[in-house]
Model the fold of this input.
Amino acid sequence: MAPSPSKPKAAGATDKPLLAVLKGERRDPPPMWLMRQAGRYLPEYRQLREHKGSFLDLVYDSDAAAEVTLQPLGRFDFDAAILFSDILIVPFAIGQNLSFVAGEGPRLTPQLLSADLDSLTPTLTRLEPVYETVRKVRQRLAPNKTLIGFAGAPWTVATYMVAGQGSRDQSETRRLAYADSDRFAAIIARIEDVTFAYLSGQIEAGAEIIQLFDSWAGSLAPAQFERWVIEPTARLVERLRGEHPGIPIIGFPKGAGSKLRAYADETGVDCVGLDETVDPLWAHREFAADFPVQGNLDPLALIAGGEQMQDSVRRIVDAFRDRPHIFNLGHGILPDTPIDNVERLVALLKGSA
Amino acid sequence: MAPSPSKPKAAGATDKPLLAVLKGERRDPPPMWLMRQAGRYLPEYRQLREHKGSFLDLVYDSDAAAEVTLQPLGRFDFDAAILFSDILIVPFAIGQNLSFVAGEGPRLTPQLLSADLDSLTPTLTRLEPVYETVRKVRQRLAPNKTLIGFAGAPWTVATYMVAGQGSRDQSETRRLAYADSDRFAAIIARIEDVTFAYLSGQIEAGAEIIQLFDSWAGSLAPAQFERWVIEPTARLVERLRGEHPGIPIIGFPKGAGSKLRAYADETGVDCVGLDETVDPLWAHREFAADFPVQGNLDPLALIAGGEQMQDSVRRIVDAFRDRPHIFNLGHGILPDTPIDNVERLVALLKGSA
Done:
């Protein structure tokens, strides 16, 4: 099970492959986890959901959220747990009302397209149950596993706060960012502040890595990408580093495509997550030789299984053989993913397939 | 109005700046047109639509479709007209029923997720009214303007044929392509054949340039992108070149991001259209020095107008100053775009602003 390190480690030190890779070590096989690994594809998750109320109730029940966080590690030899929470906890703490409408996704009110930011009353205590979840997970986590905390990146969080919900192409928010960039900059600044507090709380409670999810980074034109994705992320990374020296940060600007290298160079993240549309051979040429990357199996290839999955996995592992690499999906695992295929993926990677 | 050519042209020859750029000439200012330039942002288009029935009725009325094709050139000093038609004419000719539901977009029945391709009866006569439109436009077009014909690329057309409608992330089609690649390959092959016939008909009727719209190219993982975007496009380009030597072909793989260079190199298109998320400075470094590119103003920057538009235009024009470049949007002009901003854009580009 334990991967063979490419460098000797200090005798007695507990090996955490994910942390090693984020410091620039190569590992063969690469450590792995899967985005949304604590989720609906797991029967034990679906069962627990039936007994709890809403999604938000589950996030706010620290015992249950810790249980859900750990569920995938009970089944699979993943190298990390990722906190079970939601990126919209930050807008909730900023003062919007948050609800999850079954089959329709999240709703935030009042939406900031019309409401003023200053009409919201920040309630940072809404973040605290999440820290409690982090503490509980950390107490139960095996010593060779790593706990990943996370938040949405400011741009992506802003798209939900402005529209009040998910949107097809983030059009309302992109329009606001052009039409009233001062007002939009104030929204971004507020998100940065609360996200900094939120991530600091997670780190103090025991999160060992932070991932910033910028799920809608792909919809922005380059000048807007610089202003609303790169700059806020760079400021957040700098503040986190100042307060928590050495905390590893993974940035995941989904859809950033040709702007990935600029993102890596200018934000200062330790590792970039690649979505499944990125050609690993291209990425390997694009990034500096020792820069860690994470990704990027197509979640649909994991559903397909068989040779299609094997070929995709081989392509990724081969491309990144000579660089620090964390194996992952290119985005979240889908609810109808067969458990058997996840088992085969782990076996394939860990060399027992 | 006439741009000053960077090379002397033969005395008496009519200068068509778009064709010159596609042969590898630089032009200053770059020639321009706008995707979806014949459309709802124009009051004269909206007026004509009120008097015609459905969108499809308008496409099939060659006199009206020719009128709509020419409308933007009556107002703006664009360098090209683009045929007014729809990419779903090809599925209609393949034998699906086509309707446009107001407010919901197109519907194709039966959808091929369940129905068999062989249950459809090809009706290539459904393509012929479009050729008539091309002939009528060509008769009325000024000698320095160019007529662009177009079709959807096979992958994008397949996503509509499989799902029977537009879809958020082309998930049904991507799943089918993994789950039953033989069946999906047969759908792609049928689309290739009919698209070849359709584009040949347009060229014979007078289209001087062909653009292939691959609007959903961005959703595919790299191996799938090679098989379903690059390979079908390369085959189509080869067949068109064989039958119509010298016909310039612009490929527009929207969202292809980091895979744009592979697309350009492997499909054999003469020019690649860039969507608005591509950084022009990156693109300029990425492509061979004399390779023509088209694009890529953010349609929302055109709506914003003012300095935001000027800065975006300058960034694009400056980046591509030393290469053959056709100025365009990064995708279609939006219905609420102010006419005044389009006028300012033309003035800005043509040097009278």
Remarks:
- The domain at 33-279 of chain A is CATH 3.20.20.210 (TIM Barrel).
- The CA atoms of residues 347 and 353 of chain A lie 5 Å apart.
